[in-house]
Write a structure and sequence with these properties.
Elements: E1 8-9, H1 29-37, E2 40-41, H2 50-58, H3 62-71, H4 101-108, H5 115-122, H6 128-137, H7 139-146, H8 157-164, H9 215-223, H10 229-234, H11 240-246, E3 252-258, E4 262-268, H12 293-300, H13 317-327, E5 331-334, H14 343-374, E6 395-398, H15 402-417, E7 425-427, H16 429-436, H17 451-456, E8 466-472, E9 475-478, E10 487-490, H18 492-499, E11 517-520, H19 523-529, H20 531-539, H21 558-561, E12 570-574, H22 580-589, E13 596-599, E14 615-621, E15 642-646, H23 649-661, E16 666-669, H24 675-686, E17 692-696, H25 697-703, E18 723-727, H26 732-739, H27 741-749, E19 754-759
Parallel strand pairs: 5-12, 5-13, 6-10, 6-11, 7-9, 11-12, 14-18, 15-17, 16-17
Antiparallel strand pairs: 1-2, 3-4, 4-13, 8-9, 8-10, 14-19
Helix pairs in contact: 1-5, 9-14, 12-15, 13-14, 14-15, 15-16, 18-20, 26-27
Family: Belongs to the UTP25 family.
Subunit structure: Interacts with CAPN3; the interaction is required for CAPN3 translocation to the nucleolus.
Subcellular location: Nucleus, Nucleolus
């Protein structure tokens, strides 16, 4: 054939697939697929004139030569097709060669279907939805990739085919999840994750090493750097003696009362403790928000604003005070986050802080890339370019369910897009919506639950997930590999299965080494899942990585190289209650150099006021070391129908074993009980066949109500009902949450061991 026409050659039979020495040839999967399709494309070298043959070889790029050497043909992408129609040319095979009937038919009949289409048909097809997504959302990315020069990369056909398919589930950064580490709640709330998908297609477009920032934007950033809280925080220099003194320094505290947050406790283990009060008015320009957040935030947050949105009042009163603390890069513990009242309002403001932090951090890296490119090698101080950590992930958001992760990503998109007519690029958006969204029809239609239950367990409540998000200016890459991500969104269980434990071969926690912003949202739910996963995560935060992961050490900040990252990490902790275990995490693991702020409002009334049923509540203080002195009073005929609510699963097991040993007439329900067992136990207890019903706190959390579910079926039945609470001096915090702090103090100090409350009275 000539350079103006494309010739095609038919595949030799499988029996003739031999190498040069006559040995059996090892066929790659792509070649096998092509042979299965029946056609093999390639540009034939002229049969004569060795000079023209060598000229053609010299015209090939390194990539084309490699493909020709590996497969004996050129890639079909480089076929030279003339504008004029040219008939296919066939290669005459030797008579001794065994030709198949399909080949003879192909020689005599014109080709109706493209051989390349046949090839694609033999491979794993991309779904129609993914193809539509690539056309709509990734058009800019595809155009960039198609315009790459021949010598830019050396990728084989197998790699190109794998990259083109969005169904490839390759994940080198995330190993397969080990089994048997669940222990987080009732079966069915966590599905077993298949092999995870990561986006390998857009690696170069979202790489911080190969992208640059325009000079104008670089100049604007440098002008505000001196006053920017982000720059002040990351550029703050600590001394060795200050770090050594942290372990021995007493914590300095100071209390302030803010208008909305209430009683705040400022604390720090470093010498200087600075406090501040919120201003009456706040302007977006004074907050040093990165573009385009000044314009997009007002529209994104408009649903929570009472008046018309404007730059002078862009926050709700709660959001304003929370963001002022966040923007000062202090650690924050807010224990009054509820799903019904202010959950979404708080999610909005911490997502703003996350995007603002990531955009500033990446803009600094891209600006320094431009400076390095413009300056000569060896000119300038190397410390001027230290702008990153040992690994790229800088933000970790821990949420309990996939629905929460979905809402976080939707807020990211809204904050970057705003009301702009030009849509931002979001790769793998449809896949993400499918895996993290939910189908309303899956919910049982007759299921009735309280309002707070509906708010917590809305949408997809799978609690085993983790995903990476990369952000570059106004583009978002979902399912980014962990070490190519800026933001990690995961559940405690999802992180636990990749962090692993001591002695496990497949474990990884290097991606936590340079986390600068840690957000733990809805911490009270983790108490009902598995709090050990949270503690395991905190013990692996900001450790030195075991591998370099391709980092340029000349660009790494000195405090990161010194293993001081935990002193620069900001932790935002949100929950619905004051709990000793949550308080312990905040006090033990939060050592930010900027200090800590904890909201410490004491409950005055307690949640007992939310019980609407008329019911006597008996609070009995325990002085005994065991339950043996308490249980006998419940064996009387009057107490023949007793439900025992046990907060701890371990106490539930001990109590169940004790009941079996004493041969008591009881049944039990926990979070691991099958549906049939639950129905049977409820039936026996309702009919009076069982005197006692043991119930765990986690089953109550996931499945049922207790006090407000009591409804009399006959008149006078209410008089026989009581609710008895056993407490000791170690339950002071929980008791205060139920009855209020003043009553709790009286009950703990009183000489009487029994106290009575009656709810439901008008």
């Amino acid at each position: 054939g000539s350079e103006k026409s494309c010739a095609r050659v038919h595949v030799l039979p499988k029996s003739l697939a031999r190498g040069r020495n006559g040995k059996q040839e090892v066929l790659t999967p792509v070649v096998q697929a092509r042979r299965k399709a029946g056609l093999l494309y390639g540009t034939l070298l002229p049969p004569s004139r060795s000079r023209s043959r060598s000229q053609l070889l010299n015209s090939l790029t390194k990539k084309q030569k490699k493909h020709l050497r590996d497969f004996g043909e050129e890639h079909p992408f480089y076929d030279r097709v003339s504008r004029k129609e040219a008939k296919p040319q066939t290669c005459q095979l030797s008579e001794s060669l065994d030709t198949s009937s399909s080949e003879s038919e192909a020689e005599s009949e014109p080709e109706q279907v493209s051989g390349y289409n046949r090839l694609l048909a033999t491979l794993k097809d991309v779904s129609k939805e993914d193809e539509e997504e690539e056309e709509e959302e990734d058009s800019v990315i595809d155009e960039t990739e198609m315009n790459l020069e021949d010598g830019d990369s050396d990728i084989s056909v197998e790699e190109e085919t794998a990259v083109a398919s969005t169904d490839v589930q390759k994940n080198a950064a995330l190993p397969a999840d080990p089994k048997g580490k669940d222990g987080h709640g009732p079966p069915g709330t966590s599905e077993e994750s298949p092999e995870e998908f990561t986006d390998a297609k857009h690696e170069s477009l979202f790489s911080l090493e190969t992208n640059f920032l325009e000079e104008e934007r670089e100049g604007n950033c440098s002008l505000k750097a001196l006053q920017d809280p982000f720059a002040q925080h990351v550029n703050k220099e600590l001394k060795e003696k200050e770090i050594q003194a942290v372990a021995t320094n007493p914590k300095t505290t100071h209390q302030l009362k803010w208008p909305i947050l209430g009683q705040l406790v400022f604390s720090s283990r470093f010498q200087q403790l600075e406090t501040f009060k919120p201003p009456k008015d706040i302007d977006l320009k004074s907050l040093h928000l990165q573009k385009p957040l000044e314009s997009t935030w007002i529209k994104t947050n408009s649903q929570f604003l009472s008046g018309p949105p404007n730059s002078s009042s862009p926050f709700t009163p709660l959001q304003k005070e929370l963001f002022l603390i966040m923007n000062s890069y202090r650690d924050l513990f807010y224990p009054e986050r509820t799903a019904l009242k202010n959950g979404e309002e708080i999610r909005q403001v911490y997502c703003l802080h996350v995007i603002n932090h990531v955009l500033k951090a990446n803009a600094q890296v891209l600006a320094n890339n431009s400076r390095c490119r413009s300056q000569k090698l060896g000119v300038g101080d190397d410390d001027d370019f230290r702008d990153q950590g040992l690994t790229r992930p800088k933000v970790l958001i821990v949420v309990p369910f996939r629905e929460a992760a979905l809402r976080v990503v939707q807020l990211f998109i809204s904050l970057l897009e705003g009301d702009s007519k030009k849509k931002i690029i979001v790769s793998n958006k449809k896949r993400f919506n499918g895996e993290y969204g939910s189908d309303p029809e899956e919910r049982p239609p007759n299921l009735k639950r309280p309002e707070d239950y509906e708010a917590v367990f809305v949408g997809n409540i799978d609690d085993h997930f983790r995903t990476g998000v990369a952000i570059l200016q106004r583009s978002i890459r979902l399912y980014a590999p962990f070490y190519s991500s800026d933001i990690l969104i995961a559940s405690p269980l999802g992180l636990r299965t990749i962090i692993g434990g001591e002695g496990e071969k497949k474990r990884d926690f290097d991606f936590l080494s340079s986390i600068e912003l840690l957000i733990i949202d809805q911490a009270d739910i983790y108490l009902m899942q598995n709090w050990e996963h949270v503690l395991h995560l905190m013990n692996h935060m900001n450790l030195l990585p075991l591998d370099s992961h391709g980092v340029d050490f000349s660009r790494v900040r000195m405090w990161s190289l010194n293993n001081w990252s935990k002193y620069y990490r900001q932790t935002l902790l949100f929950g619905a209650l004051q709990d000793a275990q949550i308080n312990s995490v905040f006090n033990k693991y939060c050592v930010n150099v900027q200090g800590q702020v904890a909201v410490r409002n004491v409950p005055m009334t307690g949640c007992i006021s939310h019980v609407l049923v008329q019911l006597p509540h008996v609070f009995q203080r325990m002085e005994a070391e065991n339950l043996a002195s308490i249980l006998p009073q419940y064996r009387d005929a009057v107490m023949s129908h007793t439900l025992i609510y046990v907060p701890s699963y371990f106490d539930f097991v001990r109590l169940r074993n004790y009941f079996k040993k004493e041969d008591l007439n009881f049944t039990h329900i926990c979070e691991y009980t099958q549906k049939s067992g639950v129905s049977r136990a409820r039936h026996f207890f309702l009919q009076g066949e069982k005197q006692f019903l043991l119930l765990t706190e986690r089953f109550h959390f996931y499945k049922s109500e207790v006090c407000n579910m009591l409804q009399a079926t006959t008149r006078g039945q209410e008089a026989a009902w009581t609710c008895t609470v056993l407490y000791s001096k170690y339950d002071a915090q929980r008791l205060a949450a139920v009855v209020g702090v003043e009553r709790a103090a009286q009950m703990l100090q009183s000489k009487k061991n029994i106290h009575l409350f009656i709810t439901g009275e008008r």
